[in-house]
Amino acid sequence: LIRRCEAKATCKYVGLPEGNWHFQNLPFYETGTIEKNPMGEADVQITIDLLNKLQPHQVYCAGDFADPHGTHKVCFDVVIEALKRLKAQTSEQWINDCWLWLYKGAWQEWDITEIEMAIPMSPDQLSHKLDAVQKFQSHTLPDLLGGGRNQETARVYDSLGTAEYEAIEAFRSWQG
């Protein structure tokens, strides 16, 4: 309930309309303890149903599997399995045009050689992002705030001769 309220506050803060919020409540997560269950069939089916409903062209998943609780890896596995099944089950064009993008940032960042999509941020945009992240007080450690990793990526790009930005959000596609 706390995280759902924090997510709603963040969605409102960044301007997402209420009909665009989706809470999956995946069963693997609902253990009531720090340790979570492994991925299950219900997790995959819930994700398949949401993907079928939205038919997205892009899906974003945490790619920093150093998450101390292991939830990022389980979520990634659920999304991969759902996408794999959808590609095998449907001939609808959206699934063939759907890209899975992985991001890092809290515990790790991509090496410059791994980045396939880089989104530059101005000081105001970085500040807005960090304010949004602050809405997740139950899930945020003070030392993870400040935009350091995104700013380091921007410094690396700057050293390569690109335009100078306050920070850069970096992604790589999943080719599995």
Question: What structural keywords apply?
Answer:
alpha+beta, 4-stranded mixed beta sheet, 6 helices, 176 residues, 4 strands
Describe the structure in brief.
This protein is an alpha+beta fold. The chain has helices at 2-14, 41-54, 71-89, 93-96, 123-134, 148-159, and strands spanning 58-62, 99-103, 117-121, 167-173.
Task: Write a structural description.
- This protein has six helices and four strands, in the order H-H-E-H-H-E-E-H-H-E.
- The chain has a four-stranded mixed sheet.
- The chain is 42% helix and 12% strand.
- The radius of gyration is 17 Å and the shape is globular.
- The mean pLDDT is 88.
- The protein has 176 residues and is α+β, with helices and mostly antiparallel strands.
- The chain has helices spanning 2-14, 41-54, 71-89, 93-96, 123-134, 148-159, and strands at residues 58-62, 99-103, 117-121, 167-173.
